[in-house]
Amino acid sequence: MLILASASPRRHELLKQAGFDFTVEVANINETPLEGEAAAAYVQRLAVEKAQAVCGLHRDKETESYVVLAADTCVVADGQILGKPTDIMDARRMLALLSGRTHAVMTGVAAVFFGPEVKSRTIADVVITQVTFDLMSEQEIASYVATGEPMDKAGAYAIQGYAARWIPRIEGDYFNVVGLPIARVVHLLDQVQVPEE
């Protein structure tokens, strides 16, 4: 059985499109970066902690084997980790920082296998995509923020939404920018499965 430890509708949709059957359980963890923590280490740590938190909810009460999949995405621009904006002004600040520049989108993914009489196994990785934005005017930024789309997105934009008009180029996995690097996830899920004897 596969459990997705994420409330993200975009991750749900991508996993379904890739042909997976799964249930959803949201992990409640502290997502504050550690002092001096690099962005790649941060998203990988959060993905592992989310997967292990959901795993812990089932460890003592189930007799079936499970795989828990978790992910965490951040945008990194000018050395800053950009999560979801806290308010409208924060969204505008983030978009101004991205305007006319190339930034990195990093997604940490983790898969944990566990079951009765099976030692749990965790595999994690980080996928990085470079995204280039055209210059955005202050009016364009304000109009985009007014749509509401940026408010629950890391880096204050959705590549699959209205923001596509300002993104002429990416280098790497498009689905990583949406929130779940499907090809890498498939490999992780294959690797974490414990072969049956």
From TrEMBL:
Keyword vocabulary terms for this entry: Cytoplasm, Hydrolase, Nucleotide metabolism
UniProt xrefs under Gene3D superfamilies: 3.90.950.10
UniProt-annotated catalytic positions: 72 (proton acceptor)
Site (Important for substrate specificity): 10, 73, 160
Any one Gene Ontology cellular component term annotated for this protein: cytoplasm
GO biological process, one term: nucleotide metabolic process
MF (Gene Ontology): dTTP diphosphatase activity; UTP diphosphatase activity
Segments forming a coiled coil: none
Cofactor(s), names only, from the UniProt record: a divalent metal cation
UniProt subcellular location: Cytoplasm
Catalytic activity: dTTP + H2O = dTMP + diphosphate + H(+); UTP + H2O = UMP + diphosphate + H(+)
Pfam families: Maf (PF02545)
EC number: 3.6.1.9
Cytoplasm as UniProt keyword: yes
Major location (coarse): cytoplasm
Family indicated by similarity: Belongs to the Maf family. YhdE subfamily.
Cross-referenced PANTHER family: BIFUNCTIONAL DTTP/UTP PYROPHOSPHATASE/METHYLTRANSFERASE PROTEIN-RELATED, BIFUNCTIONAL DTTP_UTP PYROPHOSPHATASE_METHYLTRANSFERASE PROTEIN-RELATED
Job of this protein: Nucleoside triphosphate pyrophosphatase that hydrolyzes dTTP and UTP. May have a dual role in cell division arrest and in preventing the incorporation of modified nucleotides into cellular nucleic acids.
Protein name as annotated: dTTP/UTP pyrophosphatase
Protein source organism: Granulicella tundricola (strain ATCC BAA-1859 / DSM 23138 / MP5ACTX9)
